[in-house]
Automatic annotation (TrEMBL):
Pfam families: Semialdhyde_dh, Semialdhyde_dhC_1
SUPFAM superfamilies in alphabetical order: Glyceraldehyde-3-phosphate dehydrogenase-like, C-terminal domain (SSF55347), NAD(P)-binding Rossmann-fold domains (SSF51735)
Keywords for this protein: Amino-acid biosynthesis, Arginine biosynthesis, NADP, Oxidoreductase
Protein name from the UniProt record: Semialdehyde dehydrogenase NAD-binding domain-containing protein
Native source species: Hevea brasiliensis
Amino acid sequence: MSTSVFNSVYFARGCLWKDEAKSSQLGKRNENRLYVARSTSLSPRSLQIRNSKQDKDVRVALLGGSGYTGAEIIRLLANHPFFGITVMTADRNAGKSIESLFPHFITQKDLPILVSSNDAIFSDVDAVLCCLPHGTTQEIIKALPKGLKIVDLSADFRLRDTSEYEEWYGQPHRAPDLQEEAIYGLTEIFREEIKNARLVANPGCYPTSIQLPLVPLIKSKLIEYKNIIIDSKSGASGAGRGAKVANLYTELTEGIMSYGVTRHRHVPEIEQGLSHAAHSKVTVSFTPHLMPMSRGMQSTIYVEMAPGVTAEDLYQQLKVSYEDEEFVKLLEKGVVPRTHDVRGSNYCYMNVFPDRISGRAIIISVIDNLVKGASGQALQNLNIMMGFPENTGLGYLPLFP
Ligand SMILES: NC(=O)C1=CN([C@@H]2O[C@H](COP(=O)(O)OP(=O)(O)OC[C@H]3O[C@@H](n4cnc5c(N)ncnc54)[C@H](OP(=O)(O)O)[C@@H]3O)[C@@H](O)[C@H]2O)C=CC1
Ligand SMILES: CC(=O)N[C@@H](CCC(=O)OP(=O)(O)O)C(=O)O
């Protein structure tokens, strides 16, 4: 296709050049247009998916590029027209190239070499995506130059009460001042606050799959705040790439395993979000399970409805709450959400079912733990913080089968 034909095809489809995109109403919700970077000569080379800064406007430092969520950021950013990775860190893997750790990135030759956090230089960086283990992140973010936009995927800035952090994470909070300014990044619920945030605490994967259906139902007082029972299941990538016996093939395959029973560290995060929605204390029973699959997450939630409320009322409320949302989808009545159907995408699919027991309902929600549960939601948030339409670069359809 010649350049002029290519351009006219794109213009005909309503695409904007990137400076038009930036000066249009930035951060506008559910903008479905496709944005393309300006390119004066469109050779096959210039059409290859690329990751480094090159023509891209926002220079991103990716901390923890050698982990699973870091790799997912790299995959998603390959198609992002405005964000390019200019700095990438690792710990044990510092000094290596990304393709030596992830051979599926062999085409991404222009990505920087992984360096240790101490050797990373942030002078030419606009934004930071922090994909490090919880407990390491507060010190590292504290030392970053002011003025950078930061999305932290770890749990280090999610709990507003620093004593609660200490109780559940077993160490004192090392950046309480930063905690005060951190905004909780459950995009569909805190979009307005995220727009002006400097530091966003990206939610945990379980809390994302649980709060998305429950927050609107709690806000509208359709369900009781007690007796909420949550049974969640995660693929093994949720535990990261580090070697652990529990993640060996032999330990995972042909079975499921409950863990963190009664004391999983996501409980305070889930209760914080639900209590904020209720304006009073909400407690939940939560049990996560490790499943023999690489990615995907399902939360099955059992609730007691307020007097006189039916499952149809819950369904209608979720329909209203999410009808304009691009990434949260209430399925047709009776259709069971499956992890298969969101795999590799930034979607959360959900549905509500009347329980056989009167007065109760069962809600099922599914996400991909690495996308809406981590890196996809992080990019959705960074898009908003940098003034781009929040779906930019996130137009991945689910990967099935
Ligand atoms: N996996 C998931 O589904 C989700 C994860 N999260 C959170 O995102 C964060 C990253 O998770 P994930 O990618 O799965 O984890 P991984 O274990 O796969 O990756 C961790 C990354 O951090 C680096 N790292 C490890 N220790 C240190 C340290 N002390 N100082 C600096 N860098 C270090 C690792 O480098 P190296 O490879 O060199 O050791 C690696 O790049 C975690 O906080 C996790 O809880 C949130 C939602 C979902
Ligand atoms: C399967 C598995 O191990 N999952 C992780 C949760 C992943 C996640 O969202 O955790 P963060 O709070 O660390 O971001 C866990 O249970 O600890």
